[in-house]
Amino acid sequence: MPPVNKRRRVVDDDDDDDNELNSAADACEEEVKRALHIMRGRATGRIAPVKPRALDEQEDTLLGILTDSTVRGKSNSVLILGARGTGKSIICDRALSRLVELEEVNTRGFILVRLSGLLHSDDSSAFKEMLRQIFQQCEDSGKQQKARISAAETVTGLLTALRSGSTDTTKCIVIVLEEFDLFAHRGKQSLLYSLLDTAQAGKTPLCIVGTSCRFDAEDLLEKRVLSRFTRRKIFTLGRLSFEEYKQAFQDIFELPQDFSNEKFTELWRNNLDGFMQTQTLNNELRKLYDTSRDMRCVQQTAFLVVAGLRMDPKKGDRKLRLDAADLFNSIVAQTVDTKEGILLGLSILELCLVIAMANHTTINDNPFNFEMIYESYRTFILNHGESTVQWYAKPVAFRAFENLQVLEIMRPVDKGRNLPRRFHMMKFLMHPLQVQEILQKYPKLPTILKSWINF
Fold this sequence. Notes:
The model is unreliable at about 5-15 and about 140-150 (pLDDT under 50). The strands form 3 sheets. This protein has a 5-stranded parallel beta sheet with strand order 2-3-4-1-5, sandwiched between helices. A two-stranded antiparallel ribbon has the order 6-7. A two-stranded antiparallel ribbon has the order 8-9. The protein is built from 22 helices and 9 strands. By secondary structure, the chain is α/β, with parallel strands linked by helices. It is about 55% helix and about 10% strand. The longest helix has 21 residues, at about 5-25.
């Protein structure tokens, strides 16, 4: 009996799965196209994710503040602070969408105004944009309220109109100030003072929500502005575990909840599960996670994978199978490893020290000094002999160690002024898997070192 070619069997199974998936897609072509459109929207940030990860508490806090203003007529102000890409705008959008669904809010309603410190470069343009958005949303309001707001043809008229409202009858105005710190950098801070002073007056209920990537945004406020700010702050620190990070990546490829074709849903679920369980995907996402926790990196990585999915039966162009190779190509297309050229130009001694640092980081992710790395290097040479790798004395190795610091392979953790330089604590600036992949390309690398880099 001839031997069975396992590789051919795997390929045949994949082809059968593709044919089955394509056949199921033909039965619901329009729904599949709409689902792919939604996935592309999630990958580009136009559509909010299925569920923001590790932000439930912040979202509930913001929703409570918004509800307090829109339902009870109380004026509030709050700052959402966090690094870029940690979900400040997402929790703001989701809290507002949940606010619209509340019955108490639908009864009274509210007016939403969005301003950006990047777009509205001065207070005059910001006031005009605020006035335009208020007019636009008040077109269907009662005549009395419309007449009151329509009289605000100037900044003074607008502020007068806001101060002439009532907490019982007037709609709450929710003002979202993106890039809040840019508004605070302007002279006299007229816009912020006017809004916060109006909110403190207690006539028209105002809820001012500011977002900023500067944690010291509150310190930029003048005393007269700061005294009117409620000093409420919500922090989005982006503390995602790897599983949450991986789940956020998977959420981009989820089908919409109203997708009706059960057969395609089941096949797509199997397709997605197999994609998420591949070792290549886990390795690439782990490197991305260790490099940056920014969710925009996840979206950018997923975009090229989603863009490769096609559904055009008329041209015979269909590709619905998720492939880990597409993810790898997406990451390669977006990243240029500047450390690769550096490592490929190092001497064997410097490579030994880099591998020792990578091993130390893998075993114990703590800072190290030259003595610790040299001891690891000396132990390796003694255990494996000097037949293939030459052993160097400590002064020579220390000069190589200092050269690696100049090349920014590592950086000092503290200055250690009272200690000799060889005892200064250092932090490794590369990922161990990154070192392993680059050194596989090193020309004529000794075999014994190849075994040492298998972390």
